[in-house]
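Re: that chain you flagged

S.,

Sorry for the slow reply, it's been a week of failed gels. I finally had a moment to sit down with the sequence you sent. For the record, here it is as I used it:
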Amino acid sequence: MAMEKQTDIYNIIGRNLRKFRMERGYTQRGLSEALLLSESFIAKLEAKTYQTISIDTLLLIANFLDVDITSFFDENILNEEIHRKKKSEKKKRAKSEKKPR
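Prediction finished late last night. Pasting the structure tokens below so you have them in one place:
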């Protein structure tokens, strides 16, 4: 059970990292080069793997992306994004169904 919780937090960090990185227009390669980290490290963080990260490295990334370090631990950020995407997709489907053929 403890290992599952630990894995979950790393996945939350990774998903939030991906969201913040993409919002700011960085590729995994671009972010890794700017921070002198390996591209595979960034990729593993964002993937659903058990990739650990030090607080120092997370702070480095947070400062570079100009986000509060605590944002990486926030499940709600990701849930809100998923909700927004679903709502947007639903609107698009409704519009396309209304168009005459």
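What I noticed first: The mean pLDDT is 84.

Talk soon,
D.
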